[in-house]
Amino acid sequence: MSKISLIIKREYLSRVRKKSFIVMTILGPILMAGIGIVPVYLSMQKTETQKIEVIDESTLFIDLIPQKDIAHFDYPPISIQDARAGFFDTEYDAILYIPKVVLNGGQNGINLFYKKQLSNEIRGYIEETLGKMIFNVMLAKNKVDLNFIKDAKEKSTFSMITTRVDEQGKDKKTNTGLNIAIGLVCAFLIYFFIFLYGVQVMRGVMEEKTSRIVEVILSSVKPFQLMMGKIVGIALVGLTQFLLWVILTGTLYSVATATILKGIDMKQIQKKEQIIKVGADLNVSEMKQNSKADEMTQLWNDFKSVNMVQILFCFLFYFLAGYLLYSALFAAVGSAVDSEADTQQFMMPITIPLILSFVVAQTIIQNPESPMAFWFSMIPLTSPIVMMVRLPFGVPAWQLWLSMSFLILGFLFTTWIAGRIYRTGILMYGKKVTWKELGKWLFYKG
Q1: 431 burial type by CB count under 10 A (0-12 exposed, 13-18 middle, 19+ buried)
Q2: Type and span of the H or E element at 73
Q3: Helix/strand/coil for 411
Q4: b/e map 127-162, b = 16+ CB within 10 Å
Q5: Biggest alpha carbon distance in the chain?
Q6: What is the pTM of this model?
Q7: SS3 content of the chain, % helix, strand, coil (to 5)
Q8: For residue 270, what are the CA distances in angstroms to 65, 259, 295?
């Protein structure tokens, strides 16, 4: 056991001291934190106010389009021809032309001429605002009670709450979108880490084999001890990097919240409807300002309802167990070949279950309780990814423990297979190995 410990220490220290490990450990959290911080920071920045000249031949909307911090509307008493003729001599960025027959729609609609590119936000604001105003005008002209329409809209708008009932009969509110996001992110991270560190094991074995260093090492340790030491050592490297990413990312978020995002209460961000007015001559009352449901607060509450302790524990287990299972097979491939070009014929059968599980996960999120979801979360080669996709939706305890047990047994079995191949292949040079040859190695004695 002490020899395996020495190999683990050697593999671990040789990798964590590499510049590539240090650089990726630093860059990873910066990129992950940036994904969350930069969009919020950019949304806080004030954009340049663009001036828009409104030529309203219908006279229905003069001085009534609500001003916005990104768009200022002026209503000069000139024709569209005069406005276009002197367009480049004015400070306006665009001309908003509303024809007399605007209520007819179709080809008689509103035109927006610009000389300076308008943002998507401004164009969307104009379309949405004028659309609501024209809708109100049409209703008012036909003597429809706008208060009744408004009341009907408010009462018909609802947010359906999804509630999961556990085996004890207790209710638990869930957010399907959030569960899907958590499941897919965890599945992708496991998929990424297994590939990343599994390939490192394979390449490490190949380097030692081709440089003949392994012949010296095997004079002191058994092949199985060398293989296990390499697998566990690189696993600890991956776990160290992952934990450092979690700590550094959390630290960057905390620093950003206290500095560049200071004063922004994410729980109180609200989306409000603009006041939409129409002409007073139509006898239509002004629409009141209504606050929509605080989406950020709701999302935060939904996130708190997720059992993150269970998800984190299972993530670490499936990450480590899945890595150990696949890295044993990667080590066996590395010991059987002399160059990376020769690995292709052996890599495909190993990676197909891993790729298939990630592809199947896209379907399983639609029905986490289906027979396909159950069986793919039990098979050791696919369970690390599929079970993490199912977990946020709630998995019976017996299924979770059964999946973990199968994964442990799968790791022991693949390690036995890999060990049989490794002990023969690690000292074999200059021979093209076939699947038939690998099968013979499994039953060699001695």
Answers
A1: exposed
A2: strand 71-74
A3: helix
A4: eebbeebbebbebbeeeeebeeeeeeeeeeeeeeee
A5: 100
A6: 0.63
A7: 65, 5, 30
A8: 22, 22, 7
Burial of 437 (0-12, 13-18, 19+ CB in 10 A): middle
How far apart, in whole angstroms, are the C-alpha atoms of residue 389 and residue 363?
Answer: 10
- Counting Cα atoms < 13 Å in the Cβ hemisphere of 378 gives 11
AA letter at 85: A
CA distance 181 to 167: 25
End-to-end CA distance of the chain: 21
CA distance 242 to 190: 11
Residue 251 identity (one-letter amino acid): T
CA atoms within 13 A on the CB side of 189: 24
Q: How far, in Å, CA of 93 to CA of 86, rounded?
A: 12
Residue type, 116: K
Inter-CA distances, 203 with 73, 210, 233, 414, Å: 65, 10, 14, 19
Distance CA 333, CA 435 (A): 11
**Which domains does the chain possess?**
2-38+173-262+298-441 (no CATH), 50-150 (3.40.190.10)
Q: How far apart are CA 193 and CA 189, in angstroms?
A: 6
Exposed, middle or buried by CB within 10 Å (0-12, 13-18, 19+), for 221?
Answer: middle
Do residues 415 and 437 lie in contact, with contact meaning Cβ atoms separated by under 8 Å?
A: no
Cβ pair 349, 336 in contact under 8 A = no
Closest of 375, 30, 395 to residue 183, by C-alpha: 395
Alpha helices by DSSP H, listed for 259-307, are 295-305
**Going by C-beta distance under 8 Å and a sequence separation of 6 or more, which residues neighbour residue 257?**
none
Residue pLDDT tens, the chain, 446 long: 577 888 888 888 888 888 888 888 888 778 777 776 666 666 666 667 788 888 888 888 888 888 877 788 888 888 888 888 888 888 888 888 888 877 776 555 788 888 777 777 788 888 888 888 887 787 777 777 767 777 777 666 666 656 666 565 565 556 667 778 888 888 888 888 888 888 888 888 887 777 777 666 767 777 778 888 888 888 888 888 888 887 887 787 777 767 765 655 444 444 333 334 444 444 433 433 333 334 555 555 555 566 778 888 888 899 888 888 888 888 888 888 777 667 777 788 888 888 888 888 888 888 888 888 899 999 999 999 999 888 888 888 888 999 999 999 998 888 888 888 887 777 776 667 777 777 777 777 65
Residue 328 identity: A
